[in-house]
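Re: weekly structure request thread

Next one in the queue (425 aa):
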Amino acid sequence: MKSMEVVIEGNCYISGRLERCCIGIDGGKITAIAKDLDGEKVHSFDGKLVLPAAVDAHVHFRDPGFTQKEDFSTGSLSALCGGVTCVFDMPNTRPATINLASLRDKKKIASSKSLVDFGLFAGVKPGTNVASLSKEAIGFKLYLGSTTGELLVPDIASIKKEISDIGASGKILAVHAEDEGMRNKDVEKNLDDHLRNRSNSLETSAIKKIIRNAGKDCKLHICHVSTRDSLSLVTGVPNLTSEVAPHHFLLDRSGNLGAFGKVNPPLRKREDRQAMFQALKDGAFDVIASDHAPHTIEEKEEDFDYAPSGVPGVETMVPLVMQHVRDKHLELSGAIRRLCERPAEIFGVPKGRIAVGYDADLMIFDMAKISIIKADALHSKCGWTPYEGMNAVFPKAVFLRGRLMVEDGSQVGERMGRDVLAGQV
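Done, posted below.
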């Protein structure tokens, strides 16, 4: 066999199990998997786990319009250092990503800044030209509840045509499922008040409404499921996938986070958090996604009622999950399924697996090395984390399309992020 451009050897996760082998890489793709391979450049990780890198299907990198909070440069570095080599960015920027011009402008920004590969969501509002956007957007995002930005659609009837067009396009419709018509608008002083205004019933009502209105042809993806009452609604439904965020299975309203724990959907009661974690263990969700939504410390220190909603998490998502794998609270196969394989499958990108023909996106772990999460060691521009002080296992190295990008927590590779749909347009 000819010599490969790059060979990576270690304890590799292949087809659901770990085996000592070599991964051969040419042109950024995995071209061979064998016990022994020759390479022009060989990276040996003897005794370490070699896993497919993660795909984060839900990030807010705030670029353009809110770059004091984050931009594609800092957000993508955070992703990379956490083992994420592909992100899908949400449309609630300024301007909102709701037409071809704004989508292409954001694509230029991301292409010039991003260290990781990316896809861009387009927002759905009445009058959205789905046909023009569908070839260049990774999917469409519908906000049924108010949150950052101005993309709220409280009345599903107003976008029946747009939903039908999305179904015909074959693209995913990702949904922020909170029923705005049921939301209380009382003054909020703490996380209990925030939960009271956005009770569990908002989520279940919105999920029922979108399923009822989407029809059988539209592929629905329910974002950040957060309540135990929703679990039966997102299980076993044709053409529906679901997502859970780490803050909803690791944090709840009882934590002493104040406005730094203010997020939509809200941190809920301990019983809901425990139900999310158990459902994750049982395989109920398709995807773990961070919903990385940074705001500055100054913004979060405002009076609770005025502080914006959202928490950062793209850099800590995989390390926190890997800590739970290490502690035997989660199976490695389930973690890889939801962090890597399923998001890539659902959105149709050749990532998330160590298999011939896939992008050579890999993360390497020394499971003996535990770190304590500290905000000042992370890379997001926002400068804080709701997971301060928690144990985590960060990747020792991260490869994007066969190129070493992160080693021992530091960037070592040059920017090479690109739009995952660029070759398909």
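The chain has two domains: 4-51+356-414, 54-347. The first helix runs from residue 72 to 81.
Next request, please.
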